[in-house]
Design a protein that fits this description.
Largest sheet: 2 strands, antiparallel
Main location: membrane
Shape: globular
Structural class: mainly alpha
Number of strands: 2
Number of domains: 1
Membrane topology: Multi-pass membrane protein
Helix content: 55-70%
Family: Belongs to the ATPase A chain family.
Pfam families: ATP-synt_A
Number of helices: 7
Order of helices and strands: HEEHHHHHH
Keywords: ATP synthesis, CF(0), Hydrogen ion transport, Ion transport, Membrane, Thylakoid, Transmembrane, Transmembrane helix, Transport
Protein backbone atom coordinates (compact mmCIF):
# COMPACT_ATOMS: atom_id res chain seq x y z
CA UNK A 1 0.00 0.00 0.00
CA UNK A 2 1.34 3.43 -0.86
CA UNK A 3 2.44 5.69 1.92
CA UNK A 4 0.56 8.93 2.44
CA UNK A 5 3.55 10.86 1.11
CA UNK A 6 3.75 8.87 -2.12
CA UNK A 7 0.01 9.07 -2.60
CA UNK A 8 0.05 12.86 -2.21
CA UNK A 9 3.01 13.11 -4.59
CA UNK A 10 1.26 11.05 -7.26
CA UNK A 11 -1.95 13.01 -6.78
CA UNK A 12 -0.09 16.30 -7.17
CA UNK A 13 1.57 15.03 -10.34
CA UNK A 14 -1.81 14.09 -11.73
CA UNK A 15 -3.60 17.32 -10.85
CA UNK A 16 -3.93 18.95 -14.24
CA UNK A 17 -5.09 22.52 -14.57
CA UNK A 18 -5.39 23.25 -18.26
CA UNK A 19 -5.23 26.96 -19.02
CA UNK A 20 -4.05 28.03 -15.52
CA UNK A 21 -0.77 29.94 -15.94
CA UNK A 22 1.96 31.67 -13.99
CA UNK A 23 2.33 35.16 -15.45
CA UNK A 24 5.13 37.72 -15.46
CA UNK A 25 3.96 41.30 -15.78
CA UNK A 26 6.34 43.27 -18.04
CA UNK A 27 4.90 46.74 -18.57
CA UNK A 28 1.51 46.24 -20.17
CA UNK A 29 2.38 42.69 -21.27
CA UNK A 30 1.58 39.43 -19.53
CA UNK A 31 4.12 36.71 -20.24
CA UNK A 32 3.66 33.02 -19.50
CA UNK A 33 6.44 32.65 -16.96
CA UNK A 34 6.29 28.87 -16.77
CA UNK A 35 6.93 28.56 -20.51
CA UNK A 36 10.02 30.76 -20.28
CA UNK A 37 11.36 28.81 -17.28
CA UNK A 38 11.05 25.40 -18.90
CA UNK A 39 12.22 26.69 -22.30
CA UNK A 40 15.35 28.15 -20.69
CA UNK A 41 15.93 24.80 -19.00
CA UNK A 42 15.72 22.99 -22.35
CA UNK A 43 18.01 25.53 -24.02
CA UNK A 44 20.49 25.18 -21.14
CA UNK A 45 20.53 21.38 -21.57
CA UNK A 46 21.25 21.74 -25.29
CA UNK A 47 24.00 24.31 -24.65
CA UNK A 48 25.65 22.11 -22.02
CA UNK A 49 25.51 19.08 -24.34
CA UNK A 50 27.05 21.13 -27.17
CA UNK A 51 29.80 22.44 -24.86
CA UNK A 52 30.67 18.97 -23.58
CA UNK A 53 30.75 17.58 -27.11
CA UNK A 54 33.06 20.30 -28.48
CA UNK A 55 35.33 21.25 -25.57
CA UNK A 56 37.94 18.61 -26.46
CA UNK A 57 37.33 17.39 -30.01
CA UNK A 58 39.14 14.16 -30.90
CA UNK A 59 39.82 12.60 -34.30
CA UNK A 60 38.33 9.37 -32.97
CA UNK A 61 35.20 10.57 -31.16
CA UNK A 62 33.97 9.06 -27.96
CA UNK A 63 31.42 9.79 -25.27
CA UNK A 64 29.40 12.97 -25.73
CA UNK A 65 31.27 13.94 -28.91
CA UNK A 66 30.37 10.63 -30.51
CA UNK A 67 26.73 10.98 -29.46
CA UNK A 68 26.42 14.55 -30.76
CA UNK A 69 28.10 13.61 -34.05
CA UNK A 70 25.51 10.87 -34.45
CA UNK A 71 22.76 13.41 -33.78
CA UNK A 72 24.27 15.79 -36.35
CA UNK A 73 24.47 13.04 -38.96
CA UNK A 74 20.84 12.15 -38.30
CA UNK A 75 19.74 15.78 -38.76
CA UNK A 76 21.86 16.13 -41.90
CA UNK A 77 20.26 13.00 -43.32
CA UNK A 78 16.79 14.32 -42.51
CA UNK A 79 17.50 17.66 -44.22
CA UNK A 80 19.16 15.99 -47.21
CA UNK A 81 16.22 13.64 -47.77
CA UNK A 82 13.78 16.55 -47.92
CA UNK A 83 15.85 19.31 -49.54
CA UNK A 84 18.25 17.41 -51.77
CA UNK A 85 22.02 17.18 -51.94
CA UNK A 86 22.57 20.72 -53.30
CA UNK A 87 20.19 22.64 -51.05
CA UNK A 88 20.25 21.03 -47.61
CA UNK A 89 23.45 22.37 -46.00
CA UNK A 90 22.35 25.98 -45.24
CA UNK A 91 19.17 24.66 -43.60
CA UNK A 92 20.75 22.08 -41.27
CA UNK A 93 21.06 24.58 -38.36
CA UNK A 94 17.41 25.62 -38.61
CA UNK A 95 16.01 22.10 -39.05
CA UNK A 96 18.34 20.81 -36.34
CA UNK A 97 17.33 23.52 -33.88
CA UNK A 98 13.64 22.78 -34.43
CA UNK A 99 14.12 19.05 -34.00
CA UNK A 100 16.35 19.22 -30.92
CA UNK A 101 14.31 21.86 -29.10
CA UNK A 102 11.04 20.01 -29.70
CA UNK A 103 12.55 16.61 -28.90
CA UNK A 104 14.12 17.70 -25.60
CA UNK A 105 11.01 19.73 -24.68
CA UNK A 106 8.73 16.76 -25.28
CA UNK A 107 10.93 14.38 -23.32
CA UNK A 108 11.29 16.86 -20.47
CA UNK A 109 7.52 16.78 -20.07
CA UNK A 110 7.53 12.98 -20.00
CA UNK A 111 10.55 12.44 -17.73
CA UNK A 112 10.73 15.44 -15.38
CA UNK A 113 8.06 15.76 -12.66
CA UNK A 114 7.56 19.47 -13.29
CA UNK A 115 4.38 19.66 -11.22
CA UNK A 116 6.27 18.84 -8.02
CA UNK A 117 7.81 22.33 -8.24
CA UNK A 118 5.44 24.77 -6.56
CA UNK A 119 4.63 28.09 -8.25
CA UNK A 120 2.62 31.03 -6.87
CA UNK A 121 0.00 30.06 -9.45
CA UNK A 122 -0.18 27.71 -12.40
CA UNK A 123 2.25 24.84 -12.87
CA UNK A 124 5.33 23.89 -14.85
CA UNK A 125 5.06 21.65 -17.90
CA UNK A 126 6.90 20.92 -21.13
CA UNK A 127 7.32 24.06 -23.31
CA UNK A 128 5.50 22.29 -26.14
CA UNK A 129 2.55 21.74 -23.79
CA UNK A 130 1.69 25.42 -24.35
CA UNK A 131 0.01 26.53 -27.58
CA UNK A 132 2.05 29.75 -27.60
CA UNK A 133 5.28 27.76 -28.01
CA UNK A 134 4.01 25.56 -30.81
CA UNK A 135 2.47 28.53 -32.66
CA UNK A 136 5.77 30.42 -32.37
CA UNK A 137 7.67 27.45 -33.80
CA UNK A 138 5.14 27.10 -36.62
CA UNK A 139 5.35 30.82 -37.48
CA UNK A 140 9.15 30.58 -37.56
CA UNK A 141 8.76 27.71 -40.02
CA UNK A 142 6.44 29.84 -42.16
CA UNK A 143 8.93 32.71 -42.18
CA UNK A 144 11.67 30.25 -43.11
CA UNK A 145 9.91 28.84 -46.16
CA UNK A 146 8.82 32.32 -47.30
CA UNK A 147 12.45 33.41 -47.03
CA UNK A 148 13.64 30.27 -48.83
CA UNK A 149 11.24 30.76 -51.72
CA UNK A 150 11.82 34.49 -52.08
CA UNK A 151 15.63 34.26 -51.81
CA UNK A 152 15.75 31.43 -54.34
CA UNK A 153 13.20 32.64 -56.88
CA UNK A 154 12.84 36.37 -56.19
CA UNK A 155 9.51 37.90 -57.12
CA UNK A 156 8.84 34.80 -59.22
CA UNK A 157 8.05 33.01 -55.97
CA UNK A 158 4.69 34.78 -55.84
CA UNK A 159 3.70 33.30 -59.20
CA UNK A 160 2.66 30.17 -57.30
CA UNK A 161 -0.40 32.07 -56.09
CA UNK A 162 -1.78 32.53 -59.60
CA UNK A 163 -0.55 29.34 -61.30
CA UNK A 164 -1.97 27.47 -63.08
CA UNK A 165 -4.92 29.89 -62.85
CA UNK A 166 -5.62 33.05 -60.79
CA UNK A 167 -8.90 31.44 -59.71
CA UNK A 168 -6.86 29.39 -57.20
CA UNK A 169 -5.49 32.52 -55.47
CA UNK A 170 -7.79 32.25 -52.38
CA UNK A 171 -6.89 28.58 -51.94
CA UNK A 172 -3.15 29.32 -52.22
CA UNK A 173 -3.43 32.07 -49.61
CA UNK A 174 -5.49 29.82 -47.33
CA UNK A 175 -2.79 27.16 -47.58
CA UNK A 176 -0.27 29.59 -46.07
CA UNK A 177 -2.54 29.87 -43.01
CA UNK A 178 -3.34 26.18 -42.68
CA UNK A 179 0.30 25.06 -42.69
CA UNK A 180 1.31 26.79 -39.43
CA UNK A 181 -2.08 25.96 -37.90
CA UNK A 182 -1.70 22.25 -38.60
CA UNK A 183 1.93 22.23 -37.40
CA UNK A 184 1.16 24.01 -34.14
CA UNK A 185 -2.07 22.22 -33.21
CA UNK A 186 -0.72 18.77 -34.11
CA UNK A 187 2.27 19.18 -31.80
CA UNK A 188 0.35 20.91 -29.00
CA UNK A 189 -2.55 18.46 -29.11
CA UNK A 190 -0.40 15.35 -29.02
CA UNK A 191 1.81 16.53 -26.16
CA UNK A 192 -1.11 17.82 -24.09
CA UNK A 193 -3.10 14.63 -24.67
CA UNK A 194 -0.15 12.47 -23.65
CA UNK A 195 0.36 14.39 -20.39
CA UNK A 196 -3.38 14.28 -19.64
CA UNK A 197 -3.55 10.52 -20.17
CA UNK A 198 -0.49 9.86 -18.00
CA UNK A 199 -1.79 12.23 -15.32
CA UNK A 200 -5.20 10.57 -15.15
CA UNK A 201 -3.67 7.07 -15.02
CA UNK A 202 -1.27 8.11 -12.26
CA UNK A 203 -4.25 9.39 -10.27
CA UNK A 204 -6.35 6.27 -10.83
CA UNK A 205 -3.70 3.50 -10.86
CA UNK A 206 -0.53 5.06 -9.45
CA UNK A 207 1.82 2.06 -9.66
CA UNK A 208 2.59 0.01 -12.76
CA UNK A 209 -0.12 0.72 -15.31
CA UNK A 210 1.16 4.23 -16.28
CA UNK A 211 4.69 2.94 -17.03
CA UNK A 212 3.90 1.41 -20.47
CA UNK A 213 1.90 4.54 -21.32
CA UNK A 214 4.84 6.72 -20.32
CA UNK A 215 7.16 4.62 -22.49
CA UNK A 216 4.73 4.99 -25.38
CA UNK A 217 4.63 8.73 -24.64
CA UNK A 218 8.42 8.95 -25.01
CA UNK A 219 8.17 7.23 -28.38
CA UNK A 220 5.34 9.43 -29.66
CA UNK A 221 7.12 12.55 -28.34
CA UNK A 222 10.17 11.66 -30.43
CA UNK A 223 7.96 10.99 -33.46
CA UNK A 224 6.26 14.38 -33.05
CA UNK A 225 9.65 16.14 -33.09
CA UNK A 226 10.62 14.19 -36.21
CA UNK A 227 7.30 14.95 -37.94
CA UNK A 228 7.55 18.68 -37.20
CA UNK A 229 11.15 18.94 -38.46
CA UNK A 230 10.40 16.82 -41.54
CA UNK A 231 7.36 18.90 -42.49
CA UNK A 232 9.34 22.11 -41.97
CA UNK A 233 12.04 20.84 -44.34
CA UNK A 234 9.38 19.70 -46.83
CA UNK A 235 7.72 23.15 -46.82
CA UNK A 236 11.09 24.83 -47.40
CA UNK A 237 11.80 22.47 -50.31
CA UNK A 238 8.35 23.13 -51.73
CA UNK A 239 8.99 26.87 -51.63
CA UNK A 240 12.28 26.50 -53.52
CA UNK A 241 11.53 23.70 -55.96
CA UNK A 242 9.93 25.96 -58.60
CA UNK A 243 13.35 27.50 -59.26
CA UNK A 244 14.76 24.21 -60.43
CA UNK A 245 11.82 23.64 -62.76
CA UNK A 246 12.10 27.12 -64.30
CA UNK A 247 15.87 26.76 -64.66
CA UNK A 248 15.50 23.37 -66.33
CA UNK A 249 12.92 24.78 -68.72
CA UNK A 250 15.15 27.71 -69.67
CA UNK A 251 18.13 25.44 -70.36
CA UNK A 252 16.12 23.25 -72.72
CA UNK A 253 13.93 25.92 -74.22
Amino acid sequence: MLSDFNYLTFTHLASLEVGHHFYWQVGNLKLHGQVFLTSWFVIALLLVASFLATKNIQRIPGGMQNFMEYVLEFIQGLAKNQLGEKEYRPWVPFIGTLFLFIFVSNWSGALIPWRVIELPEGELAAPTNDINTTVALALLTSLAYFYAGFSKRGLGYFRKYIEPTPVLLPIAILEDFTKPLSLSFRLFGNILADELVVGVLVLLVPLFVPLPIMALGLFTSAIQALVFATLAAAYIHEAMEGHGGEEHHEEHG
